[in-house]
Design goal:
With 270 residues, this protein is mainly β. Helix content is 6%, strand content 40%. The strands form four sheets. Strands 1, 2, 5, 8 and 9 form a five-stranded mixed β-sheet that branches. Strands 10, 11, 12, 14 and 16 form a five-stranded antiparallel β-sheet that branches.
Length: 270
C-alpha cells in the first residue's frame, strides 16, 4: 500500500517536471529579394523655340519688248497725207506688267523689229496738232510680221464747247448756257488739251424755240468762258446762233423738254 502511494507520488513528480514543449523557432530562411534595375527613362528633348527669320528673296523680272523674231511696221497719215515726226507708242502686255517703246515716223513710215511675241497695244499721235488715233490691240505670234497703219485727225484750231444747266432745259423755265472757247492741242502723251482763249467777243442770238434773256454780247474770261441766261419756248428746240469774231456758228444743246408742273397742295381751313 505504502509502495503504491510512493509510486504514485513519483509519477506525479515526474509529470510536474516534464519540460514544456519548446516552440519551434521561426523560419529564418532568408527571403530572396529581387532588386529590379531602375527603369530606363526616355527624355524627349523639347523642340527648340528659337525664332529665326529667313529673309525672303524677291525676284523682279523686268519685262521687255525683245529681243525676238517678230516685227511691227506701218504708216501714219493725217489730213494732208503722210505724217513725218509722229509718235507711235507700242506696249507689250504680260498680266499687269507693261513694257513700252516710242517710235518716230520718218516720211510717215515706222517700224520696230526684233521683238517678242505676245499681246500688244499700239497708238499714234503728233503733238501738238494731230489727235491720237484709235488704239489697236492684237496678239503677235513669235515670228509674225504685222503691219499696223494709223490715220490722225487735226486737233489744233479753235474749239468751242457749250453746256446748259439744267440739262435738258424745260419750256418756260430759265436756264444758263456757258460757252468755252479755246485752242485745241495734243500733249506729249497724246492726250487732248484745250488752251483757253480769254478776251474773245461772243454774241449769242435767239434761235428757233430759244430766247436769250441776258445781254447777247459777252467777252470770255480768263478760263475762256462766257455765260447767258436763256429759256426755251418750244419743246425739242436744240440750237442757238453764236457769232465769234466775223464768223457765225451754231451752239447745239440737249433738246428742250416739256414744261414741268409743280404739284400744288390745297389746305382746307375750317
Amino acid at each position: 500500500m505504502r509502495r503504491t502511494v510512493l509510486l504514485l507520488l513519483a509519477l506525479v513528480a515526474v509529470g510536474c517536471t516534464t519540460p514544456k514543449p519548446v516552440a519551434a523557432p521561426p523560419d529564418t530562411t532568408p527571403v530572396t529579394e529581387s532588386t529590379l534595375a531602375p527603369s530606363s527613362t526616355t527624355t524627349t528633348a523639347k523642340p527648340t523655340t528659337t525664332s529665326s527669320t529667313v529673309p525672303r528673296t524677291t525676284v523682279t523680272t523686268v519685262l521687255s519688248l525683245g529681243p525676238g523674231d517678230a516685227a511691227l511696221s506701218g504708216t501714219v497719215t493725217g489730213p494732208s497725207g503722210p505724217v513725218d515726226g509722229a509718235t507711235v507708242h507700242i506696249e507689250r502686255l504680260v498680266g499687269k506688267s507693261v513694257a513700252s517703246q516710242d517710235v518716230t515716223t520718218v516720211g510717215g513710215s515706222w517700224q520696230l523689229t526684233s521683238i517678242l511675241g505676245g499681246a500688244y497695244r499700239v497708238r499714234a499721235f503728233k503733238s501738238p496738232d494731230l489727235a491720237q488715233s484709235d488704239v489697236q490691240t492684237f496678239f503677235l505670234a513669235a515670228n509674225d510680221r504685222k503691219v499696223v497703219d494709223f490715220k490722225l485727225a487735226a486737233a489744233g484750231g479753235d474749239r468751242i464747247t457749250a453746256v446748259v444747266n439744267p440739262s435738258p432745259p424745260h419750256v418756260g423755265l430759265p436756264a444758263t448756257v456757258t460757252i468755252t472757247v479755246g485752242v485745241g492741242a495734243v500733249d506729249s502723251q497724246g492726250r487732248a488739251a484745250l488752251t483757253p482763249r480769254a478776251g474773245v467777243v461772243l454774241i449769242l442770238s435767239a434761235g428757233q424755240g430759244f430766247v436769250v434773256d441776258s445781254v447777247p454780247q459777252v467777252v470770255t474770261d480768263t478760263n475762256g468762258a462766257a455765260s447767258w441766261s436763256v429759256h426755251c419756248t418750244v419743246e425739242g428746240a436744240t440750237s442757238l446762233p453764236l457769232t465769234v469774231g466775223t464768223g457765225v456758228t451754231s451752239v447745239n444743246l440737249p433738246a428742250c423738254a416739256a414744261a414741268t408742273v409743280a404739284a400744288t397742295t390745297t389746305t382746307k381751313v375750317g
